[in-house]
Amino acid sequence: MKGLTLIELVTTVGLMVLAAGIISAVYLRSVLPSTNLRAVRGNLAANLRYAAELATTTQINHAVRFDPQNSRYELVRLTIPEVIIKSVTLPSQVTITSTTFPLNTVTFNVLGATAQAGSVDLRHNSNETMTVEVRPSGYVRTP
């Protein structure tokens, strides 16, 4: 007898599907932390750029204040009284490990520039780290 029976063919295809499912689950588990951290870094960079744009369009200084202990940050309009425009809490897997800004605050003037360059370091529970840098010109970089 030549060829395969239907049962042999179904069993072979089923085993291949099972192996592919196991391999893809392992792959996704290794890629997911990096993807999550990249998304948080991208949102932080976008919010820093937004603060710089608000400062230039409204002609009012704006700041982003970091709270590393609680893994959160706020976008603030620096008027009297101050106005919190946006408050962001990072996902539980991601923490702010450090900032190099004075008082953990980056302030954008009416030209969209900052008084001092600095960076924010983010870390995922898997120990992967990423950085967002802000230059004195207000340029936000995600190396």
Query: Quaternary state, please?
Result: single chain
Contiguous helical run count: 1
CATH architecture: 3-Layer(bab) Sandwich
List low-pLDDT spans.
none
Order of helices and strands: HEEEEEEEE
How would you classify the helix and strand content by structural class?
alpha+beta
Description:
By secondary structure, the chain is an alpha+beta fold. It has a single domain (6-141), classed as minor pseudopilin epsh domain (minor pseudopilin epsh fold), CATH 3.55.40. It is built from 1 helix and 8 strands; from the N terminus they run αββββββββ. The protein has one helix spanning 6-58, and strands spanning 62-67, 72-77, 83-89, 94-99, 105-108, 118-124, 129-134, 140-141. It has a 4-stranded antiparallel sheet with strand order 3-2-1-5, covered by helices on one side. Strands 4-6-7-8 form a 4-stranded antiparallel sheet, with helices on one face. The N and C termini lie far apart (63 Å). The mean pLDDT is 90.
Label this structure with key terms.
elongated; four-stranded antiparallel sheet; 37% helix; 31% strand; 1 helix; single chain; minor pseudopilin epsh fold; alpha+beta
Sum this structure up briefly.
Helices cover 37% and strands 31% of the residues. It is an alpha+beta fold and 143 residues long. β1 (62-67) and β2 (72-77) form a beta hairpin.
Topology:
Elements: H1 6-58, E1 62-67, E2 72-77, E3 83-89, E4 94-99, E5 105-108, E6 118-124, E7 129-134, E8 140-141
Antiparallel strand pairs: 1-2, 1-5, 2-3, 4-6, 6-7, 7-8
